[in-house]
Amino acid sequence: MKKAIIFIIILLLVVLGLLVYVRRDPSQPSTDVEVVQDLVKITFLDIGQGDATFIEFPDGQKMLVDCAIDGRILEALGRVMEFYDKDLDYLLITHPDLDHYGGCEEVLNRFNVKTIIYNGMKKEYDDMWQSFWTAVQNENAEYVEIDHEDVWEIASTSLHFLYPDQPLALATTTWQKDSNNGSIVFELAYEGVEVLLTGDAEAELEEYLLHTYGEQIDTDILKIGHHGSGGASVQEFVDMASPEKSVVSCGLNNKFGHPSRRVLKRLERASSTVWRTDLQGDITLEINQTGELKIYDN
């Protein structure tokens, strides 16, 4: 009888220990173990016709750049985040086109977002945008508007914000008032490897970047502007960027014909290897602490 009681007590202790382990919030790192990875991981998510890019920094911080057109972004994030992880350090919306911000309200409802980054462009006549903007304002997050050239340092990773380099509300030229050409453009650099993300930048913005920054836009990986539209990725811009690899985010057999054959030809002339979410699914870049670059599809 005594042995049975001891066995039951031991069993209860084991069960209690398991319950404590399961109930502990696994998203919180252990206090005695430093959670560090030695790489930057960038995943261009396959979300159909639209944009969504997930960035993981060496210290575990996470950034989502654009949110697809609707709630499909949550399924896509489920492929790169643990199911119990409800924290997102940065949400960056490049510009207010539905295929870039449409799923952001779902993201804000699901995740605890610490910092929201936006270009400041307003579409107050648009009910969808109004709903999105209300969600942004209701989120208990720091709000940052990109309205000047700036450089951020996040866990040994540099983010160089090239555009907008002035408040868009003060823009005087017609092309600057266009939604696509208001896109946030930034270059991420880690251990000597550079990745340039251009939102929906069209030819006019590319030409402005060429004139303003010149050789600074030279990069290793180029996220192609506007899903490979023929109105973007002009040859001069592609040549100056001279990317070893280029990534196109677009939907399979989309009605816009993205990516344009002309753009693919320009990239071919620049000797850039093209990766496409419509054909290859999620595309992941890994840059380790020695500057070694890996790219693969999922």
Describe this structure in words.
The chain is an alpha/beta fold and 298 residues long. The chain has one domain (36-297): Metallo-beta-lactamase, Chain A. Helices cover 28% and strands 26% of the residues. The protein contains 9 helices and 15 strands. It has helices at residues 2-23, 72-77, 98-101, 104-110, 127-138, 203-213, 235-241, 261-269, 277-280; strands at 39-44, 53-56, 62-65, 87-93, 112-118, 142-145, 150-154, 157-163, 185-190, 193-197, 221-223, 245-248, 273-276, 283-288, 293-297. An 8-stranded mixed sheet has the order 6-5-4-3-2-1-14-15, covered by helices on one side. A 7-stranded mixed sheet has the order 7-8-9-10-11-12-13. Helix 6 links the parallel strand 10 and strand 11 (221-223).
Strands, helices and their partners?
Elements: H1 2-23, E1 39-44, E2 53-56, E3 62-65, H2 72-77, E4 87-93, H3 98-101, H4 104-110, E5 112-118, H5 127-138, E6 142-145, E7 150-154, E8 157-163, E9 185-190, E10 193-197, H6 203-213, E11 221-223, H7 235-241, E12 245-248, H8 261-269, E13 273-276, H9 277-280, E14 283-288, E15 293-297
Parallel strand pairs: 3-4, 4-5, 5-6, 10-11, 11-12, 12-13
Antiparallel strand pairs: 1-2, 1-14, 2-3, 7-8, 8-9, 9-10, 14-15
Number of helical segments? 9
Q: Give the helix/strand class.
A: alpha/beta
Distance between the termini: 57 Å
Any guess at the CATH architecture?
4-Layer Sandwich
* Major sheet strand order: 6-5-4-3-2-1-14-15
CATH H-level homologous superfamily name: Ribonuclease Z/Hydroxyacylglutathione hydrolase-like
Low-pLDDT sequence parts: 18-35
